[in-house]
Specification:
The chain is of the alpha+beta class and 401 residues long. The chain has 3 domains: 90 residues, D-Amino Acid Oxidase, subunit A, domain 2 (D-Amino Acid Oxidase, Chain A, domain 2); 125 residues, Alpha-glycerophosphate oxidase, cap domain (Helicase, Ruva Protein, domain 3), CATH 1.10.8.870; 88 residues, Recoverin, domain 1. Helix content is 41%, strand content 13%. Strands 1, 2, 3, 4, 5, 6 and 7 form a 7-stranded antiparallel β-sheet that branches. A hairpin with a 2-residue loop joins strand 3 and strand 4. It starts with a strand and ends in a 7-residue tail after the last helix. InterPro entries: DAO_C, DAO_C_sf, EF-hand-dom_pair, EF_hand_dom, FAD-dep_OxRdtase, G3P_DH_FAD-dep. One of its GO terms (molecular function) is glycerol-3-phosphate dehydrogenase (quinone) activity. Keywords: FAD, Flavoprotein, Oxidoreductase. It comes from Caenorhabditis briggsae.
């Protein structure tokens, strides 16, 4: 059985939608699907040399964008600056020994039984791992004599942390430990009933709410405690393990990953006993990883170089907020926003439940927005974040008479 290495690239966009272009200009399939509040778009498929650090090229990114844009009207064209991260990988496509033409590559997996009795599984992908396991074990049973044989049990086996997990566990966790619901939901979805082990590593915030749990980045629910847990329990040893393989932050937003890299290195240094020289080496390796493997070419301003609101922008935000918060409560809700948009004649087709979703998404599960929070949302968007962008869009980029 032989295999050929193929390189494939996928890009990530800051919204959620799914499409499929069954035939691109060169006959490939281009697809997009929502994942973790972003959209994955891909993919290229070219022969490549094996590499531990596959490089994302601008050529691949522009190819995907051009093919996607062929299906969209001019006003909906996806721009290069919309790409929040990109990822390239090497996939081994096997030659199926059962096919007469050995040049035919299998994009699924192949289970081969050698006359000697050796059973080999090759190819495949993570999303079909249970099916691959079941088919392999069935071949083992078929080609060996066992006194007692039971059906393959992979379909009924739960992941670690799944034994006592329930879909509503996050609410119990949020209420009991004083966690934001969005953070609690993320932790429970990620760790299942192992969430309590992560919570033991959380430190007090010194606030009434949230009571525990320091975020790595304000736009994402990942906690500093998860870095410690990944080092202690999940064999994380370098920053890329945290940014790409445990939290997936570098996939969701490579720029945000760059911003939290110093803090990740600092926490890992505490856990692993790195000296200053080791910290510097791991920080530089993390930067190189983001640049080469995550498609980070032009990140704009980094941490410490964030743009601030101008006095004109602060005045605009204050004016907008006062118009929405007519009763002077200090916050506005989806109902207040609906009324304001109606007055501005901008929301004939915007339903209230959509506005509830818009506000909840922008404010980490809280259905009320304060003036300070509105300023923070606008500032984060100005610095390249996408969280809260729908709210700002509804407010007409905060420009009113």
């Amino acid at each position: 059985m032989f295999w050929n290495p193929f390189n494939y690239c996928q890009i990530f966009l800051p919204w959620k939608y799914g499409t499929c272009e069954p035939k691109s200009s060169d006959g490939r399939v281009i697809f997009s699907f929502p994942w973790e509040n972003v959209t994955i778009v891909g993919t290229t498929d070219d022969e490549a040399e094996p590499s531990h650090s596959p490089n994302v090229s601008e050529k691949e990114i522009h190819y995907i964008l051009e093919e996607m844009n062929r299906s969209y009207a001019k006003e909906y064209q996806i721009k290069r600056e919309d790409v929040i991260s990109a990822w390239s990988g090497i996939r081994g496509l096997v030659w199926d020994p059962r096919k007469k033409n050995h040049r035919t590559l299998a994009r699924g997996h192949v289970v081969d039984v050698d006359p000697s009795g050796l059973i080999t599984i090759a190819g495949g992908k993570l999303t079909t791992f249970r099916h691959m396991a079941e088919e392999t074990m069935n071949k083992v049973v078929e080609n060996n004599r066992f006194d007692e044989v039971k059906p393959c049990a992979t379909r009924g086996m739960k992941f670690e942390g799944g034994l006592n997990y329930t879909p509503m566990l996050y609410r119990e966790i949020s209420r009991k430990y004083g966690l934001e619901e969005k953070v609690a939901s993320h932790l429970c979805h990620t760790y299942g009933d192992k969430v309590y082990e992560v919570l033991k590593l959380c430190k007090s915030t010194g606030k009434q709410f949230p009571a525990i749990g320091h975020r790595l980045h304000p736009d994402f629910p990942f906690l500093e405690a998860e870095v410690r847990y990944a080092v202690k329990e999940e064999y994380a040893r370098i920053p890329a393990d945290i940014l790409a393989r445990r939290t997936r932050l570098s996939l969701l937003d490579a720029r945000a990953a760059k911003q939290v890299l110093p803090r990740v290195v600092s926490i890992m240094a505490e856990e692993l006993g790195w000296n200053p020289c080791q910290q510097k080496k791991n920080y530089e390796a993390g930067l190189e990883f983001l640049k080469v493997e995550m498609g980070v070419f032009n990140l704009g301003k980094g941490k410490g170089e964030r743009m601030e609101l101008t006095s004109s922008e602060e005045s605009q935000i204050s004016s907008i907020f006062k118009k929405i918060d007519k009763e002077g409560r200090g916050t506005f809700s989806s109902s207040d926003l609906k009324e304001f948009l109606n007055e501005q004649k901008k929301s004939q087709n915007v339903q209230k439940d959509i506005l509830v979703d818009v506000i909840t998404e922008a404010n980490d599960g809280n259905r009320f927005i304060s003036q300070e929070e509105l300023q923070k949302i606008y500032l984060n968007i100005k610095n390249g974040s996408y969280k809260g962008r729908r709210l700002i869009d509804h407010l007409g980029e905060l420009k009113t008479e």
